[in-house]
Write a structure and sequence with these properties.
The chain has 18 helices and 20 strands. The strands form 4 sheets. The chain has a 9-stranded mixed β-sheet, with helices on both faces. The chain has a 6-stranded parallel β-sheet with strand order 17-16-15-18-19-20, sandwiched between helices. Helix 1 crosses helix 18 and helix 10 packs across helix 16. The two termini are 13 Å apart. The structure holds adenosine-5'-diphosphate-glucose. Adenosine-5'-diphosphate-glucose binds next to helix 1, strand 15, strand 16 and helix 12. Keywords: Glycogen biosynthesis, Glycosyltransferase, Transferase.
Length: 480
């Protein structure tokens, strides 16, 4: 590359600073991978409470006396080799709770909070930073950054190209129409081909109609998004931009997710699987399980409808009576949390549940589990099935979205061709899921067949190198 091209990536969460889900994994690891391939990357995030203290050598590079109702500045600093920019605006981000909610209730001013993030991104893209750095490309992630390409498009022209990535179209950044001026959108943008969406404003739609290119996180999801049952109201917008839409699979950060060097577990590899058995015993003990002869399955997930956790509750009786055991880590919908707790009470020693969010425990679960269950109704990409591949924790997935693109389901043909890396089922319902679990129990009973399956899974390419190269190609295609 002639001189490192500059890219400003904008998101509401990114590892290692703040994470509530897969968006953070991607918004943190993709820029790091691209920086490794020679791109000059910066990642803009809100400075939620306490975050600014974690940057090394923070420097102020932008100030605003009134950013949606208060003083703001952008701090620049590095962390883990990545250049982060933090939008420090106490009236918007220095508060109790998580990035989006506190005690289960959304922050009431989320529209303004993330409009402010997008506004600051657009200002930096316009060269307003005081350190002389301005990007050639602005890369916006999900609805929280959707207004950034819109502010650029609807304001004075600048030579900055924009990319909008959809990690989950179910979150659309809906705000009431009367917030238009409050969100600094000109009146004329309230039309069906701009930010208006069924009588409201959608910040995701704003990004989708204004960005130069759109990406989503798997080829199958890119196809699915054109259909009403997956596009969830935005299918028309997606279809109208089909030529600019790219499905690029996520990767896994192999520095964090590799059984050979994971400090949370006893290390093992495809060549030496001994540690896996020790991790399994430790995991069973940690969850108070005494597994029978069948597989020890794990679930690490938000407990929501999207993730098909209600189906899990329905198929458990048969799986348990066939000798399976289950360890669940997750949080989310109170009814699904309760269903998981009930399962643990009903099958003590066979089902163990931890409600909460625990990164280290997630590592121990992938280290010790035999199979990871991902029965999602829709899944833009999904990361846990890829962790499963890496750790030889066989993914059992619904054949949708990225699950379909990353796991080769076991069939007589794929098994005899030695291509299978997991088990997949379709349609996403109780009957098909139960059938998949029967298949898992059968495959597991054949110990040498299961070991071959594990070894093959562990060799699947799931790192960031190839996906980052695809983003790099896309960026290059946009540059003048
Ligand atoms: N209780 C818990 N404790 C510890 N860790 C937990 C946890 N619950 C979840 N996690 C972790 O959070 C991440 C979840 O990522 P996913 O990609 O599976 O789904 P998510 O729906 O959040 O992401 C959305 O964005 C990503 C990124 O593009 C897409 O892959 C995905 O399909 C889309 O729905 C994983 O790293 C997982 O290990």
């Amino acid at each position: 590359m002639a001189g490192a091209a500059r890219v400003l990536s904008v998101a509401s969460e990114a590892v290692p600073l703040v994470k509530t889900g897969g968006l953070a994994d991607v918004a943190g690891a993709l820029p790091a991978a691209l920086a490794g391939q020679g791109w000059d990357m910066r990642v803009l995030l809100p400075a939620y409470r306490g975050l600014a203290d974690r940057l090394t050598g923070p420097q102020t590079i932008w100030r605003d006396a009134d950013l949606f109702g208060g003083k703001a500045r952008v701090l620049k600093g590095t962390l883990g080799g990545v250049m982060f920019l933090l939008l420090d605006a106490a009236h918007l981000f220095d508060r109790a709770g998580g990035p989006y909610s506190d005690a289960g209730r959304d922050h009431p001013d989320n529209a303004e909070r993330f409009a402010a993030l997008s506004w600051a991104a657009a200002e930096l893209a316009r060269g307003q930073g005081t350190d002389g750095w301005s990007p050639a490309i602005l890369h916006a992630h999900d609805w929280q950054a959707g207004l950034a390409p819109a502010y650029l498009r609807y304001g004075p022209e600048v030579p900055v190209r924009t990319v909008m990535t959809v990690h989950n179209i179910a979150f659309q950044g809906i705000a009431p129409a009367d917030k238009l001026a409050g969100l600094r959108l000109p009146g004329w943008t309230y039309s069906a081909d701009r930010v208006e969406y069924f009588g409201n404003i959608s910040t995701l739609k704003a990004g989708l109609v204004t960005a130069d290119a759109i990406t989503t996180v798997s080829p199958t999801y890119a196809e699915e998004l054109r259909r009403p049952d997956y596009g969830l109201g935005l299918e028309g917008v997606i279809a109208s931009r089909a030529r600019d839409l790219h499905g690029i699979l996520n990767g896994v950060d192999l520095a964090v997710w590799s059984p050979e060097r994971d400090p949370a577990i006893i290390p093992y590899s495809a060549k030496s699987l001994k540690g896996k058995a020790e991790n399994r015993a430790a995991l069973a003990a940690e969850f108070g399980l005494s597994p029978a002869d069948g597989p020890l399955a794990i679930v690490v997930s938000r407990l929501t409808d999207q993730k098909g956790i209600d189906l899990l509750a329905e198929v458990l009786p048969e799986f348990i009576s066939a000798g399976g055991s289950l360890a669940v880590l997750g949080a989310g919908d109170p009814a699904l949390e309760a269903a998981m707790r009930q399962a643990a009470e009903r099958w003590p020693g066979r089902v163990g549940v931890r409600i909460g969010y625990d990164e280290a425990l997630a590592h121990r679960m992938f280290g010790g589990g035999d199979a990871v269950l991902v029965p999602s109704r829709f899944e833009p990409c999904g990361l846990t099935q890829m962790y499963g591949l890496r750790y030889g924790t066989i993914p059992v997935v619904a054949a949708t979205g990225g699950l379909n693109d990353t796991v080769i389901g076991a069939t007589p043909a794929s098994l005899s061709a030695r291509a299978a890396t997991g088990v997949s089922f379709h349609p996403v319902d109780k009957t098909a899921f139960a059938g998949a679990l029967r298949q898992v129990s059968r495959l597991y009973a054949d110990r040498s067949g299961w070991t071959s399956l594990m070894k093959r899974a562990m060799k699947a390419e799931v790192g960031w190198e190839a996906p980052a190269a695809r983003y790099a190609d896309l960026y290059r295609s946009l540059l003048p």
